[in-house]
Amino acid sequence: MTVLEILDKLKAKYGEGIQEIDEFRGDYRVRISGDIHYQLMEIMYREFGFNFLSDIIGVDYPRREERTEIIYNLYNLNTHQRLFIKLRAGGKVVPRSVTDIWPSANWLEREAFDMLGVQFSHHPNLRRILMRDDFPYHPLRKDFSLTSDEVDFGVPIRIKPPLKGLEGDKLG
Amino acid sequence: MDNLETKPIGPSDQKLMEINMGPQHPATHGVLRLVLQLDGETVIKCTPVIGYLHTGIEKTMENKTYLQALTCTDRIDYLGPMLNNFAYSLAVEKLFELDVPPKAQWARICLAELTRLNSHLVWLGTHALDIGAMTMFFYTFREREVLLKLFEDCSGQRMMTSYIMPGGLYYDLPPDFDKSIRIILETFPSRIDEYEDLLTNNQIWINRTKGVGVISPEDAIGYGLTGPTLRGSGVNYDVRKANPYSGYEKFDFEVPLGSNCDCYDRYLCRVAELRQSLRIIRQAIDGLPDGPFRSENRKFVLPPKFDVFTSMEAMIHHFKLVAHGMIPPAKGEAYVPIESGKGELGFYIVSDGTKKPYRVKVRPPCFINLAAIHKMVEGRLIADVIAVIGSIDIVLGEVDR
Amino acid sequence: MAIDNILRDGIILTSVDRVVNWARKSSVWPFGFGLACCAIEMMSTLAGKFDISRFGAEVMRPSPRQADLMIVAGRLSINMAPVMRRLYDQMPNPKYVISMGACASSGGIFRNYAIVQGVDRIVPVDVYVPGCPPRPEQLIHGFNLLQEKIAKQRSQGRR
Q1: pTM (predicted TM-score)
Q2: Which residues of A touch B229 (CB under 8 A)?
Q3: CA B169, CA C21: separation in Å to the nearest integer?
Q4: Residue A145: which domain range?
Q5: C95 partner at 20 to 30 Å CA-CA among A24, A159, B251, C62?
Q6: Contact list, A158 vs chain C (CB under 8 Å)
């Protein structure tokens, strides 16, 4: 079954739930709505044989109401097909964790939560993974600045006096 | 010695002890912290705590142009820097629809396999050092010096080369590239035989690694393992064969598989991969074509520095590309996976049409491989934890990014 | 008091200083705090070709309580900074710190929220070795500079 046939079957089954199908440089990306998210993931695993979850990518679009776009990178080990499934989460849309379908999602979802602040329901252990547990920010959000000036590290840092002739150490 | 009891002792009615294998430890290959719940010497529960090397590389890459971000990619998996450059360059080339000349493609494969050799040599040295065979460390680092000298001849830097760039290579190959590689091809096979002599049939090595760290193929696929950690369990997934890139379909090599799903099989897989890498390098150097080493598409790729000094158009292109950056022709997302020394590595680049990427996500093989460690060590002894960490081959720079 | 002055700066104690400093600088045992990429070049320095044990750094102690010199090799993340301070405090006196690499000396190429911009914000550093990563010869040169620094110090009283 080619990827296009899989997409036709999904469109036939879910209709409105499949919001957009996009093809860019040979890869297919499907944007779905939050209502059909978990059933679609189960169908991808059981019926279409996508038994390998490569990655869960989170992208932050702060101007949208659902500010995080989650992209699931699914792969079929037997037919070597790859499909990307996108979901806009945040706000009222809280996706369900797919850890019981693919156990690799455990840490990948924790990282998405830590870096971008997107919540997953029914996750066995949704805590921060890369930063310490009480870190108050989500670093990969676009409104978190890259450099250190406004952010409290939680570690006492001795401030060096600014060099003469420069504005202080601010990144341009 | 064959009837030695290898099953661990079951839990007694004493209370469990929680012990911390701290971030600074000689055998955790970096700053990895494991919280172990122990009953005597048996591990009941193992929780990795990571993040002690978190660098914010992905966020840093969002603030740099596509060519500047190449230098950040070296530092992710610092044992195989050219493989990271390769994965990033392939993703950027897919996004920009750049063509790469054949000489650059073959040279990239040659360098990628040399980097894989490099990465596996460090793995072998440190894994054996942890288990107690200290001599291996000195032998493998001796081999590594030859390879690092070759990288230095190519690019000027021993480790963080940033040599494979989007569009081709950063400099032309050095004139004695062919000669240096043929010397390597002559001397390395006997060295690998030396390593196998020391370890493969060594009773102590077999006792420490056979039956340790077992993970079944179904669990391995579910946990998203890739690389020799997956192939040690018998699952045949190698990105070079499954989704070939940069001309790998023209090369003839085998993918070694294990059958017992334990540390010993992963060791055998990696040593066999060393030999297969030499095979690929021989084919690459025999068939290396002539021609330009960088793409001619001057809208996106810098001209070689020598041309910038002599030709006017090249100078103008150089100025425009450095001052304004590479602007992608379309908004979109690109992902090209490659087989790095640890597993499937890929960069997912989201572009919004400006000269800086909007989001760069690394698919980190070591991070995902490490998540399955609790399945491999629960019920075993503490000494087995050391063997398992070594056999998964983690690099904390990639786990924490 | 006059007698104290003579005892502190007199010839007898200067010779004792020289002997003690010679002993100290010829057997500096490093505590390899290898964090990231520079740790691999540090391992290359310990290996056969660029042997650092010919200068006295015979063994790399895994425990801070048995080491003299902390080589901070690699980028120090803010999550790791309290751990590093604790390990530094566990080392007995006299102790020295070499900051190896650009990331340890000043933050390197990572000018962001997650990396401490120079480990001298956390511990006092004796020798800075630049490079990304520094060649093994550079690290050995830094080590020799540290040995010269040890040779000049006073062995009695506070450092």
Answers
A1: 0.90
A2: none
A3: 51
A4: 3-164
A5: A159
A6: 121
